[in-house]
Protein 1
Amino acid sequence: MQHQYLSYRNRVRLFKNQISSVQSQINSTKQQKASTQSEIQELDRQLASVQAEITQLNTKIQETTANLNKSQQELKEAIATREAHYNTLKKRIRVMYEYGNSGYLEALLSSDNFSDFITRLEYTNKLVEYDNKVLKDYTHSEEVIATNVKTIAKDKKQIEDMKAEQAKKQQILDNNIARKKSDCKTA
């Protein structure tokens, strides 16, 4: 009978060892689950952060694209304005060439009287002011064109850079989503 008793004791000890081993596995699994859940929460924070960065980049890309479109439109208008000023300037230069530099002086000196001289002087001053304004407008158009060309190049570069950054962020987002799916399967 003592033989059966020892066998019973061995069985109890064996069951206790098995229970202890299973309890240890349960505890280990709980720790792994908690660790995995913690990793998933961290991935969720990272996903939200990267998604916010992508959204912000999209907004910046849209704003920069709108600025680019505006600059391109301004460039077209400036080119048209420059052409108009250029044509006017060409006509004035042709007139000045045909009449020579002495044209203004001859017009003044051919006055019949002092009143006619003053009238011609005012007319000559207005022509000179007009010529200066046409030249100034033409120069301003050239400056606007140069500024818009620089702005367009800068905006295109910014859009290119932001799209590259957006692609990197999207790759990070995709990798984090894949990691999260993998972690969720193990949890």
Protein 2
Amino acid sequence: MLTSQTVYAFQCDLASDDGVAGLGEKIIKDIGVPDILHNNAFWAPNGSMEDIDIAGIRKALDVSVLGYLRIVRAFVNHMIARKSGWIVNTAS
């Protein structure tokens, strides 16, 4: 039997520790601890190996790797305390 579910979507700068932590606090305060957390973010610099942009590579790692960890950190302890929740990470 299917039950009705509410889905929320939020945006923030995944490269910002404070931005992600603030979003996590807002979500928990306004709607509670999520049952399912789905991370889906990717950023890649343009160019080729001949003109590699180190700052762009840093940003890609900050968003595409560390961003996921920031989001998980914002919610995982609350999920553990509640003894329920799912975290789904997708990557390209």
Protein 3
Amino acid sequence: VAEVADESTSVLAGCCDTSVGAVLEKVSTAEEAGADAAVVVSPYYLTTTQSGLERFFTTIADQSALPLLLYNIPPLTGNEIGIGLVQRLADHHNIIGLKDTSGDLNYHYRVVSETPDEFLVFQGATELATASLGVGTDGLIAGPANVFPQVMADLYEAYDRGDLTEAQHLM
């Protein structure tokens, strides 16, 4: 992907695992392959505390050659990256944003409104695409875009030109 992506397209590599060492190995591989950033999910299988998540993400960010996007998907990981934790991690020089697939529009809005403007926030839950654009998300990283990229691009463009009826129809 990195070889064929043009310079205006960022390549985000999923670098997910349950241990710091395993995530860093994946980040290294992604960097070697030419990725621009690593998307790192909270550890899964075993639950932890917000303090534990903070240590996990900070340790990875401190050692990562690539900038990180946090990936919040608590229905699958069992660990939500809380709003307060996102705010603290947004101050880390190597953590540049969040992909939110929580399915909670209120959470998404709060992350958008309670983090610095330069902290990127992306919606991962396709069903919340147009609503998230309405609350100021920076973009969409939705699974269906892998199968239907033109539909997702059309949805974004319809929203951007103010055609909410078409954007909702494409969802």
Protein 4
Amino acid sequence: MSLWDLNEIYDALNCKSSIKKNLEFSNISIDTRTLKKGSLFVPVKGENFDGHNFIDKAYEKGAIASLIEEKRVKEIKKSHIPLITVKNTKNSLKKIAILARKRIKNLSMICITGSSGKTTLKEWLTQILEQQYKTFSNFGNFNNEIGMPLTLANMPRNTQFCILELGMNRPGEINRLTKIANPDVSIITNIGLAHLGNFQKNEEIAYEKAQILNYLTRNSYAIIPDC
């Protein structure tokens, strides 16, 4: 079973099809160094690189289609890889992640944030749950506004429990990630001095971490540190 087919990608991005055949993708990749054969390549712009410069490399490594931002289309005229034109590739990755979350009807989503202990708790929960359930979690510390959506976009269709670590470097980041993940269980490990350089005081860190609770419902659970 493929991870994604082209029609699903178009549905996620809410754009018209420009590729005639319905491709099937084995995974979603943003990095040609780890790209697998059959991937959909998503070229995102980072601080030190722009993935658009590696679209041809992605094709050579086995990608069978790539997203491309409208403003970059004229620069890449001779590429052999099928291209899907979007306004913003980072936003498109988030849209794919949102559909990945929605398309598994009985998925249990656990999200973890805190000043420390996030990765350890994620690994513990994963090791426990995977003994009985199809369990999926972040790759390493892929917990930011690119890494977490990328993780979700690569979640297998048969996942029963997904455990995501949510990191924070700036105001609003936890809220944006939580909105994408839509957790059933939200966990705050602790509130400490981490990231204080981006905030004025500890209370601001606590407020930002608490945004993981924003999308809970009557059927959701929250686990917070005992003050």
